[in-house]
Design a protein that fits this description.
The chain is mainly alpha-helical. It has one domain. It is 74% helix and 0% strand. The protein has three helices and no strands.
C-alpha cells in the first residue's frame, strides 16, 4: 500500500477522531437545517440529505468492500 492510503486508514480508525466528528456532524445538521428551511421545502431537503448520506456511506464502504473482496451485487452472485 502507498503512504496516502495507510494514513487514511489510520485516521478513519482513530476513535478520538470519530468521537469528535459525530457531534460536529450532528450540530452542523441542525444549523444547516435551520438555514435551509427558508430555501427549500421539507421534502426537497430530506431528499438531498438522503442523497448526500448515501453517497458518503457508499464512498466509505467502497474501499472496505474492495478490500474484503465482496461483490456489489451486479454479478448475480448467490445471496445465501
Amino acid at each position: 500500500m502507498n503512504q496516502v492510503s495507510d494514513s487514511r486508514n489510520t485516521a478513519l480508525s482513530s476513535p478520538y477522531l470519530l468521537l469528535t466528528l459525530a457531534p460536529l456532524f450532528w450540530g452542523g445538521n441542525a444549523v444547516v437545517g435551520k438555514l435551509a428551511a427558508t430555501e427549500w421545502n421539507a421534502i426537497e431537503f430530506t431528499f438531498l440529505r438522503w442523497v448526500f448520506a448515501v453517497a458518503l456511506i457508499g464512498f466509505i464502504a467502497r474501499s472496505h468492500l474492495k478490500k474484503t473482496g465482496q461483490s456489489s451485487g451486479r454479478t448475480g452472485g448467490n445471496c445465501a
